[in-house]
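G.,

No rush on this.
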Amino acid sequence: MDYSDKQKIWVVSVSMGYGHQRTAYPLKGLAFDGEIINANSYKGIPKKDKKVWKTTKKFYESISRFKRVPLIGEFFFSVFDRFQRILAFYPKRDLSSPNFSLKRTYALFKNGWGKDLVQKLKKKPRPIVSTFFIPAFMAEVFNYPSDIYCVVCDADIARPWAALNPQSSRIKYFAPTERVVERLKLYGVKPQNIFLTGYPLPLENIGSEDLELLKHDLAHRLLNLDPKKRYFRQYQALIDRYTVDLPEKSDHIFTVMFAVGGAGAQKEIGYRVLKSLKNKTQDGKIKLILVAGIRERVKNYFLNCIERLDLKKGVEIIFNNKINGYFKDFNLALRKTDILWTKPSELSFYTGLGLPIIIAPSIGSQENYNRKWLLELGSGILQNDPDHTDEWLFDLLESGWFAEAAMQGFIEAEKRGVFNIAKIVSKPPDFR
């Protein structure tokens, strides 16, 4: 996406886990100077502002890891999760009253938290697109003069995503699902401030708006996901309709990617999967990609696992100490990945790339709803025992279920979110 400087925007995120930064990454082509601004770590951030952000980040990452501690870990996490839980959608009712968490956030603004960031952005006023609600609130509280947009990165959201007084707020939302649209209305957000765009998937995997690159990759993926041609026999016409011409052979070996979260949680599952698939990786029947992200300690953990199991081939680790470098490496590896195994984070939306998702245990209320969304879509399945992956994974593969899940994700999930967002915020001539 190439736009003139007049069409460029401020893309704002936060470096807390991967979710908000991953959501911002596909929008970098829209960003002024190609820069994504992290509200909690930008150049010149006041020490008092940084301290607030650092405390919040440290607490979240600590409690995510602490959850693994038997008995007490689950208890303390459940207490924390109550403050961010998503209330039942039915019966539909007015949910606009702010909760304790939201009131606490706004109390910090009274002490000037975020004012410095907004003052810096005011020097060159242009639309702000934030992938986290707090920077959007900051912009509104401190009277930012241009449009303020917020990208939602979960399939359902808690009350703190909407402003303290949502009926009078001018923040506009990009919703990834219809449920988020309706949820925001229950929270009191004006309907004209809600846009159903879908989640912004990476351009490295989509290509242009006609999705030719994505369709090419899906065609090769389906060949690996249906070795017995059981899905093909029933749905050949559907495959022909939604993909490019099928090649005779896939351009890559059957590949599963296991991705841990930003706090490094669930890396132990990766070891159990690796151990179970040891013989099959060495026999060339499968390739396993372990995603360490930007966490060197997670990379070293996986390296030790490979050494302990004396693995010689069939395993790759994705690690890059630069966040944008990691996202680029990850996205390129996905092009030759057949199944994504991950907790139901923002990566749930990557099923739109035609990727079946093996769902690791969720961490937090919002991930429970992402899991529900994947299961209802028909493109996700709950992980079975990781110690026996070599059995149940290949049973499902031979049944054709993964091929069906890939098609379900591709057909049902919105894929053009980044283009839909661009049309609204930048309004380039060819989109008018």
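When you get to it, here's the other one too:
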Amino acid sequence: MKKYTQLTQEERETLYIMRKQGQTYRNIAIFLGRDHSALVREYHRNHKSMELGYLPDTAHQLAQERKAHHGRKIDRYPQLKDTVIKLMQEDRYSPEIISGRLKEQGEEVTLSHETIYQFIYSKTGRKQQLYKYLMRSRPKRNQYYGRKTRSNYGIPGRVSIKERPILNSKDFGNFEADLTFFTGDKSINLSTMVDRKTGYLVANLNDSKHSDNIASKMMHNIMLFPRKHRRSITFDNGKEFVGHQLIKKVTGIPTYFCNPGSPWQKPYVETTHALLHRFIPKKTDAKTLTQETVNNAITKLNNLPRKRHGFKTPAEMLAKEKIYLLGALRA
């Protein structure tokens, strides 16, 4: 059954013109693909006066005023509002994920992500500081900041991403890897590795960014996956990845490097870091972190629905691959 939507201003103009031409409501309804009774109600409800008759611009303005009088949709459904707040605060769902999940689950009442954003930045939302649960935690919308570029070379055996074969989006096992840091001790970091197809993340807490330590942790992560699914791994040009040749030798995975200052060439791990910091904020004191804390965050992240997967989770996407992982990795 087709879901009812309000008439657009263009439809109101068509109704006005065709009525002036003497067309019946039924003929106009067939032309617009609308129910004729809805057009009858529209015409008489917004009939300004006997002298002026039906005016499309005035009718549209009156309809918008009535809509505004009803208030925001989310305010008319308190239980739904509570659900949105809970999903943001406890599960760190973004507005897009909440909207998509509601539709995917076939809920009777759904919300667009824009409606949720408007609620977040409304007087009520600001009072509850809901913006703090967004990925970038900005108190105002549409504030963008640049980032400094990097130009680190001097990596023995470095193979440019330009030489990487074209990746098949249907193949599991093309990974992107990086480090992410927190407040305080800049030696402490997380080494992360994300599969491009599923978005599945594995990560380790490191007490230093020494290349030998990073290579060891990366090898451990890669070897959790069967050899036939170790297709490629792409790094940035940080000196912490100079041990990539050892990784390649031990695990058999080809290694590639982005162009300096081109984080967009490994978009999945960049996006994953932004999501990860919703569960472990950047401002976290690195010295207070434990691997257990990291594992809990990874589990939540791998069970966070993604828009690109039709709001399925990376864990669900991995399960579809039917890949046996060594160790208790599944979430």
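The first helix runs from residue 9 to 20. Confidence is low (pLDDT under 50) at residues 143-147.

Enjoy the weekend,
O.
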